User: Which sequence fits this backbone?
């Protein structure tokens, strides 16, 4: 398929007007993050995107076709979009991991060997060993494992657009990093379009190219991830905590060193500060020598 | 929540909200009984007027209140047609042995009217009374039963907890439905069996979550020193105020008027014009109406 583009234009005054005049467009293969404080409309927005809510006004289009509705075309559209809910482990209902993960693909018409392969693949995607977990009862798994199984059941649909609502909520830092790495890997291997929702900017910093910040149902900032996450003032206004590394870099800059604030990934920030320190020491040394 | 259901509490402040829950429960029961006790036209109009007045006073959103009737739409329709087709009497229309009678139409309409009032009154009660108050009111009203060994306090506690978790469950169902829909579940299939099967992926997680939640709740209660419902005091003790008294007097007067208005000679019923005619002119039929009203 060529020049697949997703045009999203949603504006929905729910009774409490969760969103107002939100317009944006996501291109195929793009990774977009949606950030915002509690109650800013993030979850409403993604449910609209996934076609699970009908916008009161405006439209969500996938390749020019509306995403919501009960007819077959709408359901096919929905199948192309995978939605991972907050705390997805709540949706588990089957007796074994295999049947749980197979639910989606089976609904899409997969059978036999193909189904088996798909489930194995999806479990592998989330870093679970298919052979050991396949026949286990989901409720006996650990919290992190259950989360992975639930995510696998979304991924198993092989959606073209994957929407994840707070995928790392309630995971320990290591589980979080593993999950994000795996999602990133999948993205690089395919032309998956990824939409990640989080109030935790550290999650977005690693996973997306572009960030849309919501505040009270409106877009308060939007742009490349490096640009948006460096704008501490706007983020604070939107009720978000800027990245610790950005704050640190700001401090360093305020101390007189020249550092780039948008080098905020931990290893980048470390390199940046090291560079500044080196430069600083050197100037210090030169000053001493001249004295 | 996009839909207001019967049983949902709307926490605003209004004269009706402030009334004693015990009083409100008694009044609701009396009002529910009235359409059965006084089925005349005038009394019905008065009763409806009184309920509308209460609704206005309670600041309940009227459209939402009427919206609660949707829940009994099919039941009402079924009841109407049941009476519509089965009541013997003057035929209005006859077609292949199925006769539709005037009496049937009237009785069907009366049943619907009663059903609607029941729903509206109970909705008004829950609109204006928080689940906690309801449980407390119920506990207070049923306290005499504890003398004969009925565990009233425990029952009230169970009721409070059950009511408390209704909205939580509604939200949960909503979320799970969406999640399964996103995984390609089809809740709108034309095949009935498919539709039934589609609910399995919803109910299993709901039950699992409910059990887990019950466990958590029990732990949380024990952690805060809960040891059975015995000898617990309430944060807000119920006491009747002047407003309660005024409201009670108003209600009693209204009820008396409603009960007597159709019996007074100058407001007497005109023959063959509706339920009033039936009751006033034919006391036997009236009794029949009463009897089968416990649908």
Assistant:
């Amino acid at each position: 398929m060529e020049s697949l583009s997703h045009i999203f234009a949603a504006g929905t005054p729910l009774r409490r007007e969760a969103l107002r005049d939100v317009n944006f467009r996501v291109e195929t293969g793009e990774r977009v993050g949606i950030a915002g404080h509690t109650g800013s409309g993030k979850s409403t927005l993604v449910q609209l995107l996934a076609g699970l809510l009908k916008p009161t006004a405006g439209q969500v289009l996938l390749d020019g076709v509306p995403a919501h509705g009960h007819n077959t075309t709408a359901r096919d559209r929905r199948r192309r979009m995978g939605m991972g809910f907050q705390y997805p482990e709540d949706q588990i209902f089957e007796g074994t991991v295999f049947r749980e993960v197979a639910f989606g693909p089976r609904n899409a018409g997969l059978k036999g060997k193909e189904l088996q392969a798909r489930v194995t693949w999806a479990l592998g995607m989330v870093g679970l060993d298919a052979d050991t977990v396949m026949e286990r009862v989901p409720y006996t798994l650990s919290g992190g494992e259950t989360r992975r199984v639930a995510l696998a059941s979304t991924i198993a649909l092989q959606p073209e657009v994957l929407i994840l609502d707070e995928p790392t909520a309630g995971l320990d830092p290591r589980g979080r990093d593993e999950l994000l790495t795996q999602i990133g890997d999948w993205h690089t291997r395919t032309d998956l379009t990824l939409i990640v929702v989080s109030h935790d900017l550290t999650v977005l910093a690693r996973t997306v190219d572009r960030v849309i910040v919501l505040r009270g149902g409106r877009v308060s900032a939007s742009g490349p991830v490096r640009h948006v996450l460096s704008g501490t003032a706007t983020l604070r206004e939107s009720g978000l905590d800027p990245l610790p590394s950005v704050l640190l870099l700001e401090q360093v800059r305020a101390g007189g060193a020249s550092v780039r604030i948008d080098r905020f990934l931990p290893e980048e920030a470390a390199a940046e500060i090291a560079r500044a320190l080196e430069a600083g020491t050197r100037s210090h040394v030169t000053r001493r020598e001249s004295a | 929540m996009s839909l207001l259901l019967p049983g949902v509490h709307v926490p605003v402040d209004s004269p009706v909200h402030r009334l004693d829950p015990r009083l409100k429960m008694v009044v609701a029961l009396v009002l529910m009984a009235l359409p059965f006790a006084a089925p005349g036209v005038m009394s019905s109009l008065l009763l409806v007027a009184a309920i509308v007045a209460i609704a206005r006073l309670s600041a309940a959103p009227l459209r939402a209140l009427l919206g609660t009737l949707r829940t009994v739409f099919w039941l009402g329709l079924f009841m109407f047609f049941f009476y519509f087709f089965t009541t013997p009497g003057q035929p209005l229309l006859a077609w292949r042995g199925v006769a539709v009678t005037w009496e049937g139409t009237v009785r069907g309409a009366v049943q619907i009217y009663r059903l609607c009032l029941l729903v509206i009154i109970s909705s008004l009660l829950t609109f204006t009374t928080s689940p906690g108050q309801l449980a407390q009111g119920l506990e207070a009203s049923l306290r005499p039963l504890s003398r004969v060994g009925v565990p009233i306090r425990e029952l009230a506690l169970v009721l409070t907890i059950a009511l408390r978790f209704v909205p939580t469950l509604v939200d949960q169902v909503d979320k799970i439905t969406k999640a399964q829909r996103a995984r390609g579940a089809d809740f709108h299939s034309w095949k009935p069996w498919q539709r039934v099967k589609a609910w399995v992926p919803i109910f299993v997680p709901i039950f699992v979550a409910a059990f887990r939640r019950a466990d958590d709740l029990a732990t949380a209660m024990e952690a805060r020193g809960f040891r059975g419902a015995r000898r617990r005091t309430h944060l807000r003790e119920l006491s009747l105020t002047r407003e309660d008294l005024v409201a009670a007097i108003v209600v009693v007067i209204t009820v008396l008027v409603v009960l007597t208005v159709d019996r007074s000679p100058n407001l007497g019923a005109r023959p063959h014009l509706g339920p009033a005619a039936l009751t006033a002119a034919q006391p036997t039929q009236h009794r029949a109406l009463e009897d089968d009203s416990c649908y």
The two ends of chain B are 32 Å apart (CA to CA).
